[in-house]
Write a structure and sequence with these properties.
This protein is an all-beta fold. It has strands at residues 12-18, 25-26, 29-36, 41-46, 52-59, 62-67. It has a four-stranded antiparallel β-sheet, with no helix packed on it. A two-stranded antiparallel sheet has the order 3-4. The N and C termini lie far apart (35 Å).
């Protein structure tokens, strides 16, 4: 009998969208995998501070969601 586990390998692309400024994209900071399970990762970060709209989350190149929270 095998005892197994799943290895989570995922690339995460995440950036903040800024409204009403000369630059359209602003980076989040302090990106961390704050907790992990056998099939999930809880990502946390700090949102940009000025003119912030939302964060676009892509996992393995696939768009997942736009969020205003500092986690996904």
């Amino acid at each position: 009998m095998k005892t197994g586990f799943k290895l989570i390998i995922a690339s995460l692309l995440i950036f903040g969208v800024v409204c009403g400024s000369a630059s359209a994209i602003s980076s989040v900071s302090n990106l961390n995998a704050s907790d992990t399970g056998t099939i999930w990762i809880n990502w946390t970060w700090d949102n940009p501070t000025e003119n912030f709209s939302h964060v676009s989350v892509y996992i393995d190149g696939t768009f997942e969601d736009n969020v205003t929270t500092e986690y996904y």
